[in-house]
Amino acid sequence: MKTLIASVLLCLPLSMAGATAAGQLGLGAADPAVPAPSAPSSARAQLKEWTVLIYVSARNNLGIEALKDVNEMEAAGSTGRVNVVAELGRIKCDPPFNPFSNVQEPTQAQADWTGSRRFLIQKDSDPLSVNSPVLSYEPDADMGDWRHLAEFINWGKRTYPAKRYMLIIGGHGSGWRGVKAPAARGIGYDDVSNNHIAPAELAAAIKAGGGVNVYASDACLMQTAEVIYELKDSAELVVGSQETTPGSGYNYEVFLKALDSNPGDALAAAQAVMKGFSEFYGAQKQSVTMSIVRPALAGELAAKLDVFARLVAASPADMKLYHEKKWGLRAFEDEDARDLYQLMKLYYDNSPTPAVKAAAQDVICLLAQKLVVRNDAVGYKSKDANGLSVYFPVFDMNYKAKYEYLNFSKATWWDEMLRAVMAAKN
Is residue 416, in this structure, part of any structural domain at all? Predict the structure, then answer.
């Protein structure tokens, strides 16, 4: 037992202060599963270090915030080392009404246009107007269509080639719930088309675009085991939040300036994203979560969770354990999202079944030692957020059958275990 406890102590979650170095995690080179951009060696020497592709779906209530984001991008701009290319799709939005103020926020300049515009972001000092040249315009581009996203990725990489690529999707997000099934939600909400990009479609779009080195979600609730599983062959690193995010999202000025000052490898770029989010909001004393994970290990994670799920589903005592202890688990805005590390720790600490304890420990060690590269749980509301969430309903009535459409569900016994645990309560 002492050996087992010592082993668990070696598998503590990463913190903001203790991020693991790239060399220790084998992140110095691109993952072989990710298609690498190719260019002749002579031409490659002339390429910029990074092209950052930013796809902002604001054909919803984020139309004003999205304009502010583009102005933040312009405060940094494209440089000699970094191309910044954005597509912004939006509808007209008025500033929110404040019933406690006699003076309402004025409508921002340029807030009256609709459709989709693509920009090569150029540096300027005007914080109120977007001055970068419009490279293309579509009056009714469906920002919730994964094929449009794939075309944007291909266009951006073809037009602005670089040594490495980062893709950021901004807008609303809700994690795995984007699976295409009745009443589904996802990322890339488009209120005009009533469409969205499902997790599997997100992976398909990135693959159709030849892969990227870093993928980041400037959206809520996207850092889940189910989404990461879809992205396992799409990027070296994935950056996202377990929790809802502030409406203003990333501080693009901070992030892009950090990237330009240290373009480096995929980890350096992912760390720059953290500066523009978790470090930025942390300095303002706001509670946020953001983590960097290695999606190439999602298959290994799924295999370990499959073992765990089969063992729990076969043990009445372990199915009952969840209902006895679930109120001690951290609650996110999505009440049925559980911190995966904390969930496994619950079973390791309390399971009466040695095999379940061992399976939980296997997951804990994979999360802490390899999969979660960096975890920033900033502020008092972010306690016990360790970098990755998973679906585990609070009540049996909360179980959604559309969960079974996910590739993660098809690859594991997790959904079968959830149904068994929910039934055990009854």
Answer: yes
Same domain, 287 and 308: no
**pLDDT tens-digit profile, the chain (426 residues):** 333 333 445 565 544 333 333 333 333 333 434 444 444 454 565 899 999 999 988 665 555 676 788 789 999 999 999 999 999 877 666 655 556 666 656 666 666 666 788 999 999 988 887 889 989 888 878 888 999 999 999 999 999 999 999 999 986 444 444 444 543 445 565 566 667 788 899 999 999 999 999 999 988 889 999 999 999 999 999 999 999 888 788 999 999 999 999 999 999 999 999 999 999 999 999 999 999 999 999 999 999 999 999 999 999 999 999 999 999 998 888 889 999 999 999 999 999 999 999 999 999 999 999 999 999 999 888 889 999 999 999 998 888 888 998 999 999 999 999 999 999 876
Domain count across the chain:
2
Q: What share of the chain is helix, strand, coil (3-state, %, to 5)?
A: 45, 20, 40
Q: What is the pTM of this model?
A: 0.85
Query: The domain containing residue 339 runs over which residues?
Result: 2-11+299-425
Q: What one-character DSSP code corresponds to residue 209?
A: T
Separation CA 88–CA 101 (nearest Å): 31
CA torsion, points 173, 89, 267, 209, in degrees to nearest 10? 100
Q: Which two tokens stand for residue 9?
A: 């102590």
Asked if residue 409 belongs to a domain, the reply is yes
Looking at the structure, tell me whether residues 312 and 188 fall in a common domain.
no
Read off the tokens for 194. 């009533």
Do residues 361 and 223 both lie within one domain? no
Distance, CA of 385 to CA of 367 (rounded, Å): 12
- Cβ atoms of residues 223 and 242 within 8 Å: yes
DSSP H helices, 209-339, are 225-230, 252-261, 266-275, 278-283, 298-313, 316-325
**Last residue of some domain: 295, 323, 348?**
295
Sign of the Cα pseudo-torsion (362, 368, 369, 374, in order):
positive
CA gap 96, 107 in Å, rounded = 10
d(CA 195, CA 404): 20
